[in-house]
Amino acid sequence: MILELKANSLDDGPGIRTVVFFKGCPLSCLWCHNPESKRTEAEISFAANDCIDCGTCREICHQQALSKINPFYIDRSKCNLCFDCIDSCPSQALTRVGKTMSTDEITDLVLKDKPFYDVSGGGVTLSGGEPTMFADYCGELLRKIKSHNISTLVETCGQFKFETFERLILPYTDIIYYDLKIFPTDLHRKYCGANNEQILENFTRLQKLSLTGRFSIKPRTPLIPGITDTENNLKLIADFLKQLGVNRIQLMQFNPLWYEKEQKLGLTTQTVFKNQRWQDREKMACCENIFKEREIEV
Predict the structure, then answer these.
(1) Quick one: which of 53, 69, 145, 239 has the fewest CB in 10 Å?
(2) Between the CA of residue 101 and those of 39, 44, 60, 113, 137, what are the distances in Å?
């Protein structure tokens, strides 16, 4: 299940890239910036600001799942995902989230932008959600893309079976962006919905393999106020990286603009971040210094 293909991306790896967003993730991070990617099934999104209240969707819904009195318009306990309402919506306030695509379809689409990859040193990035949940599919897709001499990058939360990843995905991957969100296991379970032992072990093994030069790996930490950007958490991550001989990390500034995406899906998890702002320069400098003091480039 694919969320979208985003062309001309400058934020998901070197050069100009096309990003393939997968639907489905084994984690459930409280601050997820792509909440529409958590579930593996297709969903319906409702953008209240785009609705012209023509009533067409309510008339066509046989399940009577649509009403202005519903908190988020759609009563998802009644909705059977027939998607008839989407086809009838003139303003596209109702949209489908997720569609199935073959590896050939995606390969044909990304090949159209190969000249941009070649000139800029870009390529194709698999993101999500979590692409490694679909290892067979990703391996096939990466193999086809690599056969056209296109650089590949996989963004991952690290929650996967290492042997499967090593066999199916790694042979066709040039770059790995690897998220290290929270180091203490109990806090990782609390805020991400799962333990992190496998994540830390997989990173350790991949870091050692990267020394062969077959691929590169870059750890990333999203700075979530009061959760991941604490001095204790960042020191633990920095010490972990230092021990492994890692000399660089990417710190991702908190983005306060994404909580509204959950409301379109009828969720309220991120409302706790509604009034949060971007970290100020002073806070960012403090976070960066923790790594720089350990000679880790930020």
Answers:
(1) 69
(2) 17, 18, 28, 18, 10
Strand locations in 117-246 (E): 123-127, 151-156, 175-179, 216-222
Give the per-residue pLDDT at 241.
98
Under DSSP, the state recorded for 248 is B
Query: What does the chain come to in residues?
Result: 298
Residue type, position 144, single letter: K
The tokens 């109990």 sit on which residue? 186
Read off the pLDDT band of 261 (50, 70, 90): confident
**Average model confidence (pLDDT) for the chain?**
94
**pTM (predicted TM-score):** 0.93
Supply 249's token pair: 């990390």
Residue 18 and residue 9 in contact, taking contact as beta carbons nearer than 8 Å: yes
Q: What is the mean pLDDT of residues 186-209?
A: 97
pLDDT in tens, 127-165: 999 999 999 999 999 999 999 999 999 999 999 999 999
Residue 106 CA to residue 113 CA, distance in Å, equals 12
End-to-end CA distance of the chain: 34
277: left (phi over 0), alpha (psi -120 to 50) or beta: beta
Give the model's pLDDT for residue 58: 96
Q: Which domains does the chain have, with CATH numbers?
A: 2-39+98-292 (3.20.20.70), 43-97 (3.30.70.20)
209 to each of 170, 263, 279, how far by Cα in Å? 10, 42, 34
Q: Which of 137, 56, 41, 48 is nearest to 97 (CA)?
A: 41
Cα 274-96-179 angle, rounded to 5 deg: 50
Distance between CA 13 and CA 11 in Å, rounded?
6
Q: Residue 119, Cβ neighbours under 10 Å: how many?
A: 10
